[in-house]
Amino acid sequence: MSVKKISRDELKAKLNGGEDIIIVETLGPKDYEEAHLPGAINIPHSEVDELAPRLLPDKSAQIVVYCSNKACQASPQTARWLDALGYENVYDYEEGKQDWIESGLPTESGTVAA
Hints:
It is a single chain. With about 110 residues, the chain is an alpha/beta fold. The chain is built from five helices and five strands, in the order E-H-E-H-E-H-E-H-E-H. The termini are far apart.
């Protein structure tokens, strides 16, 4: 599988257009709690098998995964793994959280009840 990529502008357009999209941060809980994209849920790349069935029950949902930046391999690994698990619409926001923050876009902090 080649991982489908999504740019910051494409992601913003989907969010601003009100599309039903699930955003997943693939970093660990500490990084997630410090700052994450608005509305994102946390599925660390090492816990996909355990958490995806519970947190992502709809395998046809639009899912965007991201990690720190282009050098980080957590989101492409997660995208490939979700594809292998049967998820149909997975995108990797390859530039990640660093790109989002450097562009002046808002983030949230703290935990989200799962």
